[in-house]
Amino acid sequence: MSSGACVRVLPTSAGWRQVTSSCRRLPAGPSSDPRRGLSSPGSGTVNVFNREMKKRQKNWAASLQDSHQYDYLRDEVSSRVADRIYDVARTFPLALDIGAGKSHIAGHLSKEMVERLFLTDISEASLKQRKLSEIPTHCVLADEEFLPFKENTFDLVVSSLSLHWINDLPGALRQIHQVLKPDGVFIGAMVGGETLYELRCSLQLAETEREGGFSPHISPYTAVTDLGNLLGQAGFSMLTVDVDDVQVHYPGIMEVMTDLQEMNGNEDGSIPATFQILYMIGWKPHESQAKPAKRGSATVSFVDLSKIGQPSHSHQS
Questions:
Q1: pTM
Q2: Contacts of 283 (CB under 8 A, 6+ apart)
Q3: Which of 53, 126, 130, 136 could cross-link to 101 by cystine, CB 3.0-4.6 Å?
Q4: Alpha carbon 211 to chain centroid distance?
Q5: Using alpha carbons only, what angle is made at residue 119 by residues 118 and 124, rounded to the nearest 5 degrees?
Q6: Sorting pLDDT into bands at 50, 70 and 90, what band is 101?
């Protein structure tokens, strides 16, 4: 497991916003902890999110004159998704961006990497404000939960910060797997279960003090321990799961957030909010891909490996 940290300072109309992140790589293994969206084929799912309401919210947000000032987190995460695309080191003739919004990912890619790109989103207003890119793009108004594409269409599917609003995440991952060509890759990012823990704790303590109990005010998120299992159930192979903890220091706070400020405020008056970002990579199986060796087929023991690099002793008669 590797770890690292980085700090970026982003300008806003209200001052400077500092973004600090730490990252770690975790094994994409199974989990027995049930969470939102852990449905199985044929089972019912609970619709936590009203997708029609979500469309109206996204259209409203895109219509704001200063909406670009609030894109810093999407831009940051999209750049990290693009980094993972470049790590693949191949050219993708046809790619799909699910929940593309203003096409944040495309701005970090070149036409040498992606030759043609389809953008989908439930918000027409967001797609109309898509950022300019050198990659030829085609916009499709579609819900992430119902992809209108044929099987084996795309060489690459990406998604950045939209899958956490999906009601049936296992079903959405199966659709992504379906529209990918064999040996195609899915690279995505979504917010994880530890996101906005400062806000959740502050609201729960404040409501418990005033009301004697509390209700959830933050959307449910997927746990990192579930993600590898979900990808595997959807049919993906050669899985990779990464985690970034991105902390944003806001320059100010509204009166309704006083409790958050008292508990977590910094000496300079800024207010931290942590976003746990889960990055996932999964491949659609193909016969050309490397296969794991059969159990018991090793020809060298771990004891022998410990001797590598030690000087050999030759005996002369």
A1: 0.69
A2: 183, 184, 185, 186, 236, 237, 238, 289
A3: 126
A4: 35
A5: 140
A6: confident
